[in-house]
Design a protein that fits this description.
The complex is a heterodimer. By secondary structure, chain A is mostly beta strands. Chain A has two helices and 35 strands. In chain A, strands 2-1-5-3-4 form a five-stranded mixed β-sheet, covered by helices on one side. A five-stranded mixed β-sheet of chain A has the order 11-12-13-14-18, with no helix packed on it. In chain A, strands 7-8-9-10 form a four-stranded antiparallel β-sheet, with no helix packed on it. In chain A, a hairpin with a 3-residue loop joins β29 and β30. In chain B, the strands form ten sheets. Chain B has a five-stranded antiparallel β-sheet with strand order 12-13-14-16-15, with no helix packed on it. Chain B has a four-stranded antiparallel β-sheet with strand order 7-35-34-33, with no helix packed on it. Chain B is elongated, with a radius of gyration of 61 Å. In chain B, a hairpin with a 5-residue loop joins β29 and β30. In chain B, α3 runs antiparallel to α4. Chain B is an alpha+beta fold. Among the domains of chain B are: 142 residues, no CATH class; 369 residues, Methylamine Dehydrogenase, Chain H, CATH 2.130.10. Chain B contains twelve helices and 35 strands. The chains are: A mainly beta, B alpha+beta. At the A-B interface, loops of A face β7 and α11 of B. Chain A: It comes from Mycena sanguinolenta. Chain A: It is found in: Nucleus, Nucleolus. Chain A: Keywords: Nucleus, Repeat, WD repeat.
Chain lengths: 440, 749
């Protein structure tokens, strides 16, 4: 019996197009043979691995198995989309910390910035040496962001902390003494969960456990806008004497959530999105300070959110405690979760790929980070996953998040921070960096 | 009997038998013959022989009818009136005597006779082959009348109107109409009357001894008349006087209207007849068969092999309890030796046999299973372990802040950790001397502190990173500038606040010293307003040695059961019970009413604190109560025991459990109702946590719905101890559990 074959048309959005032509493909073939076929047809000098999508499903088995599983007849013409394969990133180095790392950034040139639960902000250079550190808060820092500014040697950092305030700090990596707390943002009555700034650096959003979202500008006021509490109680956060920050009041308070707000992010200058433990994802009109749209799902407290990658504008990804990441499109008047990515553990953070139009990275409490391609959503399997930390005894939590794009040539990199506890104490913590292998 | 007239000579004995063989109509025919057989002597007799025989026949007939009278009449007739004439016979030529023909007179007995056949009461089938059917009075043959065929008979019945009242006359061998008297007899027989028309069943009675002039005057006895006939009776007088006295004293009301004088009518068919089946008859004993006969057929007799086999068997194994035996006659059968025994067994059977009719229930077993909703439709509930927080010792107690964001967990090394629920990061830790017995967060939202119970002391601790307003209010509550006035009665419980300059966030802001040797507080429970707090102390030696328990018990004056109630604002502690029966295991405040649940080893008592009285005693039927929680509505209580039982009480319903769940394989350690979601969880020493859906309805008619949802496994059993405490997050369907393995797990939905 002759080997069965299936007619197929190949399409792609990658820079390696095939001529539109129907191929008869033996059904015993799987990804490897198909990738070889494409490489041979294009006669590429250097082999490029490809992955293949059939009706939004990543091909993991042979074609025959896929056809029987999806009950596709032998004479139907398959439309196979191929994408460049994503290989799991390779671990480059560890950056040890004294305490849990809560936030990571590699927006700045030649530096990584990390925030930790001991209230410190640290900077590392590419040779993994700690070059700078400063105590910003007396309580754990839960999140920070770099407010974009025009000045080159000093940077404005917004930090959110458990001590109920956020803080605007000007830092200068050249001199340790130049760390100036400019303003402390006083609104919330519960620990803050996140702080984020818009792209122009004019405004900052803070989200807190007390169900409020504060909108602030980044101008430092001349005098205290919020009165000092009654004298006599010792504030632990005022450890940095001399540079007493100005007490700043919010521009606007966004009230609509009924429980802890776990994530808030700017979409553009006028709109922002937030998600919370009340199982809602909300869109905000920042000009008027009102909630313009609310997506309510049933009993899914959201832990984190991220804007979708560039291929899907005004859509949002939110992770919830029922171990899924859902994609919501706000252009739809009655949005439902269009894509659901299931995890084996609680997904605690999501980040979109800065370079790839379809990829997101999610980190979960099982210590595994997963790269998802939003086109391959049917089987809900990640295109690549990597385990960041080994050891069954250790309690792993992935709380850091960042997006990074190095200017060093064509390399695209992912950075992720994490914290780790050993059996008794919290000394062994580290920050790890992964680099995606070169594709070209 | 016309013996001589018979043409053939059948023996006279035979005629009796033949008659008995005759049928009914023959019988009536002979009756007819009896009536009809009066001799009629024909002048023209055919033969001399017949004439000669005439006398004899006549004699016989008269003998039957009326012997004396007719005989005398006949003799007179013959002797006096008829003179024989001597004539010369035409046939023989010899002279013969010819008598004149008999004229039956009016008074002649044979006047009504018109039957010519005088053959007598003989079977008529003797004449079947002959042309005649008999002989008349004169000895002449009576010829057989012509008989038509069936068609003629039918035509006769059509033509003759009296055909249906005629009957076949056997003597005459023809149909004769029945006379009116005979028809009347038939009618009477048919109507079940006396056939005799002259019989009068209602004839008047003849009075022989009663009535005027027939009285008997003379007495039967000559004894003088007794005295009692005319002397008034003394006993009668006493009886009457008794009644009179009773009337005077009012014991008898003479003209009392009779209450029951009027008959009450009722419809006897008004009530429906009973639907009970009549009582069953006793089962019948088995009937004897051939083999039990005294003389059974040979094939029933056992062979020698069968007999030995039967004897070798045990009596209860035998197929039948006797061996067939053969006796040549009934008189040789001996007395039955097993009579008493068999009768006794029969009585036993009747006694034990159920004598009531049971209606067989025909129920599909699948309908008996309650229709529970599927767990998928009852989401959310915790179904996976998201986080694990690890203690070095076993995590005996934990508590969750009222806003549901923080967990405090205490272990046996005296370490209390404060950490976030959904990150698991430890924010602060406190170290106390001695193992932590209980932890509880104050339920108030405007202040924030928690209470840690260690050996003989309660420490009040403020968590870090509070808003300044909350912090100030908490500090002023726990360490006020001016202490409230001391209560009148000195309490053995001391409230100690360190001075404000030695205060630090690592130490307790307030310490309550319980009386010495009161042991480890094993439970701290708050009233929902957050002002009152109750603690239960375990006498440390209760569980270990009875002797030291008694000593400790006496030393601590512990009749109040180790229960203390603390009021935070007044800084005052009191023992609510002067004396309590049994060792108190747990106490609880009712969420809405001023009620107080106290669980002793086997009972749960509910007290009203404002009225200070016992309301109810619940009997869960558990040997040793380990845990208890009350539903947020306050109407339901769950109680768990070390004997693996979980009892759900509907407090409105009964003091017996509404439902008993026995799903754990080891002792239950902790129970918790979710404050807002319809969920409760139970943890056990088998290392598993079971989550139940418990929907309580507002109307009292609908029973609570309890659906088992999920078994959460993940804790390891260490030294026989599993999951020691479970608690719910306040606003999310999340569960936090502390295990003996030192792990505190957070279970997300």
């Amino acid at each position: 019996m002759a080997p069965a074959s299936q007619p197929a048309v190949f399409t792609t959005q990658s820079p390696y197009p095939l001529p539109p032509q129907t191929f008869m493909i033996p059904t015993a073939w799987s990804r490897y043979q198909l990738s070889q076929l494409v490489n041979k047809a294009l006669s590429l000098s250097k082999p490029v691995p490809f992955d293949f999508l059939l009706r939004g499903d990543l091909l993991k088995t042979s074609l025959a198995d896929w056809c029987t599983q999806n009950s596709v007849g032998e004479e139907e013409t398959l439309e196979i989309e191929y994408i460049e394969s994503v290989l799991p990133p390779q671990k480059m180095s560890d950056l040890p910390h004294d305490d849990w790392v809560s936030s990571v950034s590699c927006q700045l040139e030649q530096r990584f910035l990390t925030a930790s639960y001991d209230g410190q902000l640290r900077a590392f250079d590419y040779s993994q040496k700690q070059t700078w550190s400063s105590v910003i808060h007396g309580a754990p820092v839960t999140s920070f962001c770099i407010v974009p500014s025009t000045s080159t040697n000093s940077h404005l950092i917004a930090t959110a902390s458990h001590d109920l305030t956020a803080q605007l700090t000007e830092i200068n990596f050249e001199s340790m003494q130049e760390t100036k707390p400019l303003a402390s943002l006083h609104l919330h009555t519960a620990p803050l969960s996140i702080v984020s700034s818009n792209s122009s650096g004019s405004q900052v959003l803070t989200a807190s456990w007390d169900s409020l979202i504060g909108l602030w500008d980044t101008l430092v006021p001349e005098s205290d806008e919020v009165p000092e509490p009654a004298p006599g109680d010792r504030k632990k956060r005022r450890k940095i004497e001399g540079h007493k920050p100005k007490r700043k009041a919010p521009l606007m308070v966004l009230k609509s959530h009924t429980a802890r707000v776990s994530g808030a992010v700017f979409n553009d200058e006028k709109t922002a999105y937030s998600c919370g433990f009340d199982s809602t994802v909300r869109a905000w009109d920042l000009e008027h300070g009102v909630c313009s749209q609310t997506i309510t799902s049933s009993e899914r407290p959201f832990l984190a959110l991220s804007l979708a990658p560039s291929s899907a504008p005004s859509t949002l990804l939110a992770s919830s405690t029922d171990r899924t990441i859902s994609q919501y499109d706000f252009r739809d008047p009655h949005p439902l979760a269009s894509v659901t990515l299931a995890h084996p553990a609680t997904p605690s953070c999501i980040v979109r790929s800065p370079s790839h139009a379809h990829q997101i990275l999610s980190g979960a409490y099982d210590g595994v980070a997963r790269i998802w391609d939003l086109r391959s959503v049917k089987g809900a399997t990640p295109v690549a996953s990597f385990k960041a930390w080994d050891g069954e005894k250790n309690f792993l939590v992935l709380t850091g998040k960042t997006e990074a794009s190095y200017a060093s040539g064509a390399k695209a990199g992912w950075g992720s921070g994490k914290s780790e506890t050993t059996y008794h104490n919290f000394c062994a913590t580290s920050c790890q960096f992964f680099f995606q292998p070169e594709i070209l | 009997m016309h013996l001589l007239s018979l043409p053939h000579f059948p023996p006279p004995v035979e005629s009796l038998e033949m008659l008995s063989d005759e049928e009914g109509p023959e019988e009536t025919a002979s009756d007819d013959g009896h009536v009809d057989e009066f001799p009629e002597i024909d002048a023209g007799s055919d033969s001399e022989e017949e004439d000669l025989l005439e006398d004899e026949g006549e004699d016989e007939d008269s003998e039957e009818e009326d012997f004396e009278g007719e005989d005398s009449d006949d003799s007179m007739d013959r002797d006096i009136f008829p003179k024989p004439k001597t004539v010369i016979s035409d046939i023989t030529g010899q002279p013969k005597r010819v008598y004149p023909e008999i004229e039956p007179e009016y008074d002649s007995d044979s006047s009504t006779e018109d039957a010519p056949n005088c053959v007598g009461n003989v079977p008529m089938h003797w004449y079947d082959d002959l042309p005649h059917v008999g002989y008349d009075m004169d000895g002449k043959r009576v010829m057989r009348p012509a008989r038509g065929d069936e068609l003629d008979k039918f035509l006769e019945t059509v033509e003759d109107p009296s055909a249906w009242t005629s009957a076949f006359d056997k003597n005459a061998q023809m149909d004769k109409p029945l006379s009116a008297e005979e028809l009347d007899i038939i009618r009477r027989l048919y109507a079940n009357e006396n056939p005799d028309a002259g019989y009068d069943p209602y004839e008047p009675m003849t009075e022989w001894f009663t009535g005027k002039g027939k009285e008997e005057i003379m007495p039967l006895s000559a004894a003088p008349e007794p005295k009692r006939r005319w002397v008034p009776s003394k006993w009668e007088k006493q009886k009457v006087m008794k009644i009179v006295r009773a009337i005077r004293q009012g014991r008898i009301i003479p003209s009392k209207p009779k209450t029951t004088s009027k008959l009450e009518f009722y419809s006897i068919w008004a009530e429906p007849s009973t639907s009970h089946a009549p009582p069953l008859p006793a089962p019948k004993p088995r009937l004897p068969t051939n083999s039990e006969s005294y003389n059974p057929p040979e094939e029933y007799l056992p062979t020698e092999a069968e007999r030995t086999e039967w004897e070798a068997q045990d009596p209860e194994d035998r197929e039948r309890d006797y061996l067939p035996q053969k006796y040549s006659s009934l008189r040789l059968v001996p007395a039955y030796d097993r009579f008493i025994k068999e009768r006794f067994n029969r009585q036993l059977d009747l006694y034990l046999a159920p004598r009531i009719q049971r209606v067989k229930l025909n129920i599909d077993p699948s309908t008996l299973i309650p229709k529970l909703p599927s767990p998928q439709s009852l989401k959310p509930f915790p179904n996976y372990k998201s986080l694990k927080f690890t203690h070095s010792g076993s995590a005996r107690c934990l508590s969750i802040s009222p806003d549901g964001a923080w967990v405090i967990s205490g272990d046996e090394d005296g370490v209390v950790c404060l950490w976030e629920v959904n990150v698991g990061r430890e924010v602060k830790r406190w170290k106390f001397a001695g193992k932590i017995g209980a932890l509880e967060w104050c339920p108030r939202l405007d202040v924030s502190y928690f209470v840690v119970g260690i050996e003989e002391a309660l420490h009040f601790v403020i968590p870090p990173n509070l808003p300044s307003s909350v912090l100030v209010l908490t500090q002023s509550l726990l360490a006020p500038a001016s202490l409230p006035p001391a209560p009148e009665t000195p309490s053995p419980v001391k409230w100690v606040t360190p001075s404000s300059n030695s205060r630090s966030s690592d130490a307790a802001i307030l310490t309550v010293h319980l009386p010495p040797s009161s042991g480890l507080p094993k439970q701290i429970t708050w009233h929902r307003r957050g002002d009152y707090m109750a603690t239960v102390c375990a006498f440390a030696s209760v569980f270990w040695s009875p002797i030291s328990y008694v000593l400790d018990y006496a030393a601590s004056g512990g009749t109040q059961g180790g229960v203390w109630m603390h009021q935070i604002t007044r800084r005052h502690s009191q023992a609510p019970f002067k004396k309590i029966r049994g060792a108190v295991q747990l106490v609880l405040f009712h969420p809405l009413k001023p009620h107080f649940f106290v669980a002793t080893q086997q009972y749960v008592r509910i007290y009203n604190l404002s009225e200070q009285k016992l309301l109810k005693t619940l009997t869960p039927g558990i040997k040793w109560i380990s845990s208890m929680d009350v539903h947020p509505s306050g109407d339901h209580l769950i109680v768990g025991g070390y004997d693996r039982k979980l009892c759900w009480f509907d407090l409105e319903l009964s003091d017996k459990p509404y439902k008993i769940l026995r799903y754990h394989t080891r002792a239950i350690r902790s129970l918790a109702f979710h404050p807002t979601y319809p969920l409760f969880a139970s943890s056990s020493d088998d290392g598993a946590i079971q989550v139940f859906h418990s929907r309580v309805y507002n109307d009292l008619m609908t029973d609570p719905l309890i659906v088992p949802l999920k078994i959460l496994r993940g804790h390891t059993v260490k030294q026989g101890l599993g999951v020691l405490q479970v608690r719910w997050c306040a606003r999310q369907p999340w569960l936090v559990s502390g295990g003996a393995d030192g792990a505190v797990g957070v279970w997300f939905s």
